[in-house]
Structures are given as C-alpha cells and as structure tokens.
C-alpha cells in the first residue's frame, strides 16, 4: 500500500505570494490533517478534513486555508506569504474514525519544505 | 490549557547504551498517547500508541510506559543504535467527541547516538 505523498517536496517563494501544497492520503483513508513544523514552535495543528468537510481547525490566521476533494486528496493554500511562514508542512492521513480502543492512528507524509524570502 | 511537555530537550548517548525520554501532559479528557520518531527532514513515524488502560507497549527496542494517574509517559530505548538518532515526539489525543483540537504535540526530544 502506498504511503502518504506530498508535493512539492521543496518550495521557495517571496513575501506576498501565495502557495498551494498537495497531499495524497493512503488509499481508503478519509481524513487528512495538516501541520506546520518550525524549530521554535514544534508541530502545530492547522486543520483536519474528513469527507470533503473541515472537521477541526487550529489557531492559524485565515491566510491558511484548505480543501479536500472527493478522492480524499487535499490541498492547503497560504496567501500573502510572510517570512514566518517558512516551515515544514506535514500532512497526515487516517481512517478518520476511532476503533473501540480510541487509537485512530495518523500516518505522516514526508512534508513540504517551504522557504519564504 | 492542554499541554504536553517533554524532557530533556536533547540527549547525547553512546551507541549500545540505554536512554529514557519523559513526557508529561495535562490534556483532558484523555484518549490516547503516542510516541513518534522523526528523522531530520522527514515526516514522523509512529512507534507506539497507548490508551488510558494500557501502561506499557513495546516496539522492538522501544518501550513506552504510561501512568494515567500522574499523567506521565516515558519512552525507553534499549541498546541504542546510530539509526536511533532522531527527534522523538510525544502526542496526546483528546477523547473522541471532545471539542477543539484533537492532538496536542510535545516539543520533542532530539537524540544523538554517537559511536
């Protein structure tokens, strides 16, 4: 079974531009979550999509948005880029439903390294 | 506020030695606790998942323990290898159905194994 894939792997943008990142989950997984990882803040939750609907949202400004398609693939968009948006953006897929043991495991992709100049 | 604190922030050990990483959390209501290993520049990979009723879980040379009463967990690495050099992240999940962000991440412990 193929793992979670993210494209592109590396991206360089300038302030004020916008960027779209893509994530393809594991086949059969309906939930995709996005995270931002920086050396200073660690991993921070952006949002989760399940069956094309945003199910959970972290504390990020409206410049960060996402969507999910009917095939569960997800995109994340960041508009009006700022220097502080430079980070590793990770997506994780899961079935989206917990079993009786409550252990809905997430599988992470390799990430997209975004550098804002 | 739901928080996950990890210690130490970084650790250097000699190949073949054991080490223990700590995780304290205040997340409530608690569903499960996970340990992830993250190699530099790559996505985290799950090592163990424990619910509140489990107090130990092993995955090869990795053994995680959980004390739900004191809200503490530890990850023990036995007979460390150079490939164990990575960041180890403790992640606590809110109970299904609870409002708000489901996962709270610790800051991670960076482990460096030297020959």
Quick description:
Chain A has 117 residues and is mainly beta. Chain A has strands at 5-7, 10-13, 19-24, 31-38, 42-50, 53-57, 64-68, 74-78, 87-94, 107-108, 112-116. In chain A, strands 2, 4, 5, 6, 9, 10 and 11 form a seven-stranded mixed β-sheet that branches. In chain A, strands 1-3-8-7 form a four-stranded antiparallel β-sheet, with no helix packed on it.
Features:
heterodimer, A: 117 residues, mainly beta, seven-stranded mixed β-sheet, four-stranded antiparallel β-sheet, 11 strands, globular, B: 115 residues, six-stranded mixed β-sheet, 57% strand
Q: Using a beta-carbon cutoff below 8 angstroms, give the protein chain pair with the largest interface and the number of residues from each chain.
A: A-B, 25 and 24 residues
Based on CA atoms alone, the radius of gyration of chain A comes out at 14 Å
Percentage of residues in helical conformation of chain A:
under 10%
Mean pLDDT of chain A: 90
Principal-axis shape of chain A equals: globular
Number of strands of chain A: 11
Report strand % of chain B: over 45%
Work out the strand percent of chain A: over 45%
The rough form of chain B would be described as globular
Pattern of helices and strands of chain A: EEEEEEEEEEE
Q: How many H/I helical runs of chain B?
A: 0
Q: Which range best describes the helical content of chain B: under 10%, 10-25%, 25-40%, 40-55%, 55-70% or over 70%? A: under 10%
